[in-house]
Amino acid sequence: MSRPESLAPMISPESGSGAVRSPKTAELVARTLRRMVVDGQLKDGDFLPHEADLIAHFQVSRPTLREAVRVLESERLVEVRRGSRTGAKVCVPGPEIVARPAGLLLALSGTTLADVMTARTAIEPAAAKLLAENGTDEAHQELRRLVEDVPRAYAAGTLAPASALLHRRMVELSGNATLGIIAGMLHEIGERHTAAAISGADSENRVAKAEYAKLIKSYARLVDLVEVRRGDAVEAHWRRHMEAASAAMLRGHEKTRVRDIMD
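Structure tokens predicted for GntR family transcriptional regulator:
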């Protein structure tokens, strides 16, 4: 974890160097620092420049600077350890930063699990096609490893989290950042829905062997089609898979709402 040696090379005139004169000074300072994170001038694990350097650069008071840092802290872009002399550390967030608020919004709006499954059925086949056509060899290899992990998860009674992770990573590995964020937002809901569907189907929280065999066969087909880069074929296959999964998972949960399965 590094701390920039000098503030001057990091903040260009275009990014707002020099004095900041505005009634909302703290927000403008926060905007400049935020932009530095977005542009990669400040990376995950870096520390913000020393407080004295920031105060001199922006020509603001210490309370104003600290207010700006609190703005970034509220956005989970920095982590501040009270009493520490190292200052604020940059923490680049993942999809989890929006997952909880998104889940809460869906819960508050009365969204059903059927609604979520419809969205997933629209998103995942398109992502599978992108992964097949544009995904790296490393991404294809990771997908295969995730599929190979499923039998162990089934034996251990942890099929729900393993299956949910496979679905999420398949979308993230597609290379489309927007779809990946959406998949991350829906991950916890999908995992809890899968767990609820499995627990409702079997007292030992396991799907029947026949259904499990179909699942594994479908996952294997997904990987095979992805690896030979047959985009249209994998998209059609995964749409059929999601439609079948939706029908099975919504059995008994036709009117179940997101808020019914979330804490």
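The chain is about 65% helix and 0% strand.
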